[in-house]
Amino acid sequence: MLKRTEKLAILGGEPIRSKPLPLYNTLDKKEKKAVNQIFDSGVLSGFAAQTNDDFYGGKWVKSLESSLCEKFDSNHAIAVNSATSALHAAVAATGVGPGDEVIVTPYSMTATPTAILYTGALPIFADIEPDTYGLDPKSVEKNINKNTKGIIVVNLFGHPARLPELQKIAKKNNLFLIEDNAQAPGALIDGKLTGTFGDAAIYSFNRHKIIQSGEGGAVTCNDQDLAMRIRLIRNHGEALVDGFGIKDITNILGLNYRICNFEAAIADIQVSKLDILNKKRIDLANFLTEKVSELDFLSPPLVKTNCTHTYYFFPMKYDAKSTGIPREIFTKAVEAEGFILKAGYTRPLYMTPVYQQRKCFGKSGFPFNQANRKISYSKGICPVVEKIEEEQLVWTTITYPPLKNKDMQEFVNACKKVVDQRKALLSHYST
Question: 3-class SS at 412?
Fold first, then answer.
């Protein structure tokens, strides 16, 4: 008869970890002091939609932007209220519109291609690489045509995409390149920071990102005109273009994407902690990689020799043939042991209703009805991402402080326990 500790928790046994995992919390007395200073000042936002210094935000916003420029080697930084806002502002500032196409990954948070739709342009989904999950340059090149205006690349899970190759493709074809770097701040490729290869880069300060301020985001870039257009989109630009002497008002129908002083001050302090936070994640991930490598049914994330990985997620490939346990059952059983493990990341975005029904703004089908050619969003257009999502990928988020190596080992023990008790598990699900 199985001991209580051997019986799977999903079948009523004792879990390996009975206490909830601690939350990822990167805040300390520095952030608290800054927030109290802002509260006492009474100036919760320094913004105004006017053609004076208030257009650029308060001193905390300006300090954050200065820190971002220094940290990510950029001439300009524009802080906003979310990475979704940052994506839209950056894409809109390029001037794309109805009939234009922008190549993008199908494996990301939905906001990445949605930023294209907001301009009236159309996302064109290129396939990904099977090991690092970034855009495949060959697939990108195959999708370039006379309507293509740009590329949005995502450094997914914390690993750099093939940025040098994509940069060359963009320059060769006179396309803009935007990096969605929300999940990989501080990652390196050939010693160069992610976020510094494109015309603009996006960062996220959402509550569960590596650096966080609850909500918030930013765009970095080197071009002065592009930066000003992004600032106008952030802050009711349509009312201010004449005051600033802006002649090309394309896509400058502004919104309120302004970030408040509380979030800006917290994010500013968080940027100063990035290297330390990344090192803690990398150390935990290195230990977990070593232990997962001993299992014949899980493959740890690949890190290319010229890259660093910041491990926003810890993605793995699961071999259901080796265990005989369907992926979804395996992950549920591991989670019952007290750990986070998910099957698949997101369905390929072209399979979501907005693309399948081709409905976005109103009922006429705009902007899909503005396409200059027939565009496919059918299943099968990106076979690599479909196979990964439907069959292989599992991921956990446990490579964060304050978790320790012993927690990584317990996670591996949970995976082993589930596979060791596969007969009981499969018998339960077959009845």
Answer: helix
